[in-house]
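Hey forum,

I'm writing up a methods section and want to include a predicted complex as supplementary material. The small molecule is pyridoxal-5'-phosphate. I've pasted the protein sequence and the SMILES. Can someone with a working setup run it? I'll credit the forum in the acknowledgements.
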Amino acid sequence: MSPRLVCGTCGLRLPRGSLRLQCSCGGLLEAHPAPSLRGVRLRAAFDRRREGDPAGEGSGVWRFRELLLPGRGPLVSHPEGNTNLYRRDAVARWAGVADLALKHEGENPTGSFKDRGMTVAVTQAVRAGATALACASTGNTSASLAAYAAQAGLPALVFMPRAKVAAGKLAQALCYGARVLEVRSDFDECLRLAREASDELGLTLLNSVNPWRIEGQKTIVLELLQQRGWEPPDWIVVPAGNLGNTAAFGKALREARELGLISRLPRLAAIQAAGAAPFYHSFRAGFRRRFRVRAETIATAIRIGDPVSYERAARAIRQTRGVVAAVSDREILSAKAVVDGAGIGCEPASAASLAGLRQLVRRGIVGPRDSVVAVLTGHLLKDPRVARGAPVVIAPRVSEVERVLKDL
Ligand SMILES: *Cc1c(COP(=O)(O)O)cnc(C)c1O
Ligand SMILES: [Zn+2]
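Reply by user p_vandermeer:
Happy to help. Structure tokens for the complex are below, copy them as they are.
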């Protein structure tokens, strides 16, 4: 049966090869992959490719191609994925669990997990004949889109909230040659504008409303399961803003179990910043009510008040018996100091996962013996202004160095 797009809200089915990215009812479309292999045979195919060239068969995204984009053709790939799982005793001890691995998605080519979704969505856009690409962004989506548009030779238009994007991300979007529009408003308005402008002006929208972004981001989970020999951890912890990743993780886990790649579902923990926590408020209300807030947090990548993937993320939390937590900016900065101090490093939003894990352990929700994979979503250099300490200014004399050495 050929894979197709299905509307998550009204159930409308679109044929394979459809150019549409949103349903006329306003609902989000979802891809339904139908691989010809299942279970151990599918696992074996994935494992065999992992031995291949990381820029080809061994790509951390395209190695899972049966579950991503139907059809064959050239790929717009840098490549992506093959990110490390780090184990550091000091970090695990701080969180309060013995078995913790950090999956560092900041090791993707533009420094965030967005590249995994972008390679799939831009590849699809090129195949569908797109002439101009667009996105709204808190920063990393635009950095990623700019790079993939440059590689594909297509113009890119990015909408950013004015003065709320970290310096590294803005620099990337400009250097890769995207046309950057700084909107005098917040991210939520930027996304509304980008959706409207795309509809009216024929731009291809590369936000996570684009179903192919979600398909690519599933590979974070597929790759971490594979790195663990297909033995799921008890928990997967992820920072949550617009909820594309939470939705993608739920979809990846559902498909992995249906296809017999794994036999048990890990529980998902989605972590929001307390100043941008509408999904957390919904979770506390048993998902009976959808909240929208005016968002504020130092973690600009998750500074989002009206997350677009709300419904499918709620499904991901329910289906995995997951939880949603909220952490203060102080907790985020403490966690970032621990990740940075272990020599790994991440941007502020990424540290929300570790901060949330520590809180969930303290609340007795995650057990000290549970196995946990926490996802670090972006690279330390994305947001150089959120740095600990400051340089010491000295004259060029050894005595001055000696003075500094004494207080180390
Ligand atoms: C995009 C992003 C997030 C939020 O992911 P969502 O899918 O929007 O929930 C978190 N951290 C970083 C670094 C990001 O770039
Ligand atoms: Zn619909």
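Some notes you might quote in the supplement: The pocket of zinc ion (ligand 2) is lined by residues 7, 9-10, 12, 23, 25, 27 (CB under 6 Å). The chain has a mean pLDDT of 95.
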